[in-house]
User: Which sequence fits this backbone?
């Protein structure tokens, strides 16, 4: 079924299956696809974000289960705390799935990673639909963060959305791109990967 996603500025994407069928003003797409399902979102539609610290956030950090919050807290564990925890493969897989969900909640559609050596982590990323961007440098600078705007590196977006391209994009509840840069990716209200609504904040 074809779906039209539109933001508060009247910019829209027509999505069919995993691909973008058309991009343009909402009124134009509704005229072309009168029977399409329409989703109206607050804020702005943008290409999805690329998180440059995929390795650090998914393969070198443990994301506690909410049920572990009293013992481990809610923030990712790294360094000595991670060493002391010594997660087994099952916990690494569960951690990666939680980490992926937190990334999706920040409009991320791709992660830059070195080789992911743990199969449980690789599987979690593969099932999510996140695109893996090969990263050859071990140290890229910046501070690993679920919000790419907070990592101290230039923000990267997925390729532009155009007819026939993969439907990967985010929606952020801000008035424009300048406000997104200021307020960050925590304003995400929806993330779409290959036409699937993989995160919805409201």
Assistant:
């Amino acid at each position: 079924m074809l779906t039209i996603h539109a933001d508060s500025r009247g910019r829209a994407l027509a999505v069919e299956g995993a691909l973008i069928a058309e991009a343009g003003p909402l009124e134009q797409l509704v005229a072309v696809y009168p029977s399409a399902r329409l989703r109206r979102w607050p804020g702005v539609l943008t290409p999805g974000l690329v998180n440059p610290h995929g390795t650090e956030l998914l393969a070198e950090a443990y994301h506690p289960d909410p049920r572990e919050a009293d013992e481990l807290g809610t923030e990712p564990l790294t360094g000595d705390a991670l060493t002391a925890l010594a997660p087994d493969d099952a916990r690494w897989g569960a951690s990666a799935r939680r980490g992926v969900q937190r990334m999706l909640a920040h409009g991320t559609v791709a992660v830059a990673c070195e080789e992911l050596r743990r199969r449980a982590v690789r599987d979690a990323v593969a099932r999510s639909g996140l695109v893996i961007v090969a990263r050859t440098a071990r140290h890229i600078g910046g501070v690993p963060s679920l919000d790419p705007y907070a990592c101290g590196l230039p923000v990267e977006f997925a390729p532009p959305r155009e007819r026939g391209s993969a439907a990967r994009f985010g929606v952020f509840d801000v008035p424009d791109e300048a406000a997104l840069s200021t307020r960050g990716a925590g304003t995400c209200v929806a993330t779409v990967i290959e036409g699937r609504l993989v995160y919805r904040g409201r």
Notes: The first helix runs from residue 26 to 32. The chain has a mean pLDDT of 94. The radius of gyration is 18 Å.
